[in-house]
Amino acid sequence: MLLPTDPARLCVPIRLRSDTAVAAAMGRHFARGAGLAMSASAEVALVVSELASNLVRHAGDGGTVELWLEADWLIIRAQDRGPGMPQPEQLFAGREGRLGPLPGESLGEGGPAIRRLTDAVHASNREGGGLEVVARKRRSAGFRKDWP
Question: Which ranges carry the Histidine kinase/HSP90-like ATPase domain (predicted)?
Fold first, then answer.
């Protein structure tokens, strides 16, 4: 596990299930340091936890979760070199009418939670393989969904 050396950027490698809790705690601390309220920082921790859990569950060798600041935004990005998704935006659709998870499946509500807890989110397959999810959360009061 790498510790942050740049106060304006945080990068946490995710390989094990235990890394998700560490990343969530570090994400919450980063958000508080960026000036987000306690409740908004808790939401950032949940988003980081969901993204990290997906890396452990679906990306084979894991990946990274990064946080950094851009003007009024806190950016959260998860990247991996896993198989990617045929339709990456389906990550945020949830179970959509299915009655419940099949044995061994997750509830499938992490993606919709990420969408609800951030101001904007986008998923895309990476060139060369893997998936990238980028979410933005406004650092100050107000609401705007004008990204990307």
Answer: 22-137
* Mean of pLDDT values over 85-106: 70
Task: Read off the tokens for 125.
Answer: 């397959």
pLDDT (tens digit, 9 = 90+) per residue, 3-40? 555 668 999 999 999 999 999 999 999 999 999 999 99
Planar angle of CA 80, 12, 115, nearest 5 degrees: 65
Unique residue bearing structure tokens 């997750």:
106
